[in-house]
Amino acid sequence: MPKERNKADGYREKAYEGDTMAMNNLGVCYERGTGVKVSLELAFEWYMKAAELGDVYGCFNVGECYYHGKGVEQDAVKAFEWYMKAADKGDMQSQVNVANAYYLGNGTEQDHHKAFLWYREAAFQGHVLSQKNVGAAFWNGDGVEKNLEECVFWYELAANGGDAQAQFATGWFLMTGTGVPHDERKGLKWIHKATFQGYQPAIDYCKEHGYKWY
């Protein structure tokens, strides 16, 4: 389409002038075929140009290319290296990816403590799944010393973010007085939030204890 082609041409012009955002956008155009013919190889090249100039999104996109093998040979180690560059610059999704890599030992050595630290960085930025992961780490003593108060705090944050498992956990903490004062009314409210999302353990809990769940 002419409009999309003009947009791609505009990105190309700015990219040649050294605009890293335009380099990334041009890479996206090549990846999606927006105004240009799809070329994952050219997408990778433009992402790399931006990344080499220190652009955080370029670093993330290069990591994505290496991780998924888009326009370049799949390489978990290089993916981790570029995700780390973006994570150090504050990119939330890259922080999650780095945490996952450390947790699983994918592209780097397995290290649950470092995984915890990076999940927490993403959690501070509001990443709901990472907030739940931090809560789980404090509950299990996985990569960090067990801490019930911290566990409850992070699970409640994730619950407020809409995570059904965290909502059920938060409700259970309140229902049982685990880490917080016992409060059946508030606890049941959280458990119901999880049941409304179809979270089966919450539904089973209500059935087992004689509470309505619908």
Task: Provide the descriptors you would attach to this structure in a database record.
Serine Threonine Protein Phosphatase 5, Tetratricopeptide repeat, 72% helix, 214 residues, 2 domains, elongated
Tell me about this structure.
With 214 residues, the chain is an all-alpha fold. It is built from twelve helices and no strands. It has helices at residues 2-16, 20-32, 40-52, 56-68, 76-88, 92-104, 112-124, 128-140, 148-160, 164-176, 184-196, 200-209. Helix 3 packs antiparallel against helix 4, helix 7 packs across helix 8 and helix 8 (128-140) runs antiparallel to helix 9.
* Count of DSSP H/I helices: 12
Predict the CATH topology of the largest domain.
Answer: Serine Threonine Protein Phosphatase 5, Tetratricopeptide repeat
CATH superfamily of the largest domain: Tetratricopeptide repeat domain
Principal-axis shape: elongated
Q: Roughly how many Å apart are the termini?
A: 50 Å
Number of strands: 0
- Count of domain modules: 2
Indicate the CATH architecture of the largest domain: Alpha Horseshoe
Q: Return the structural class.
A: mainly alpha
Name the average pLDDT.
Answer: 97
Helix share, percent: over 70%
CATH class of the largest domain: Mainly Alpha
β-sheet strand percentage:
under 5%
The low-confidence runs, each spanning 5 or more residues with pLDDT under 50, are: none
Cα Rg: 22 Å
List the secondary-structure elements in sequence, H or E: HHHHHHHHHHHH
Q: Could you describe the largest sheet, including whether it forms a barrel?
A: none
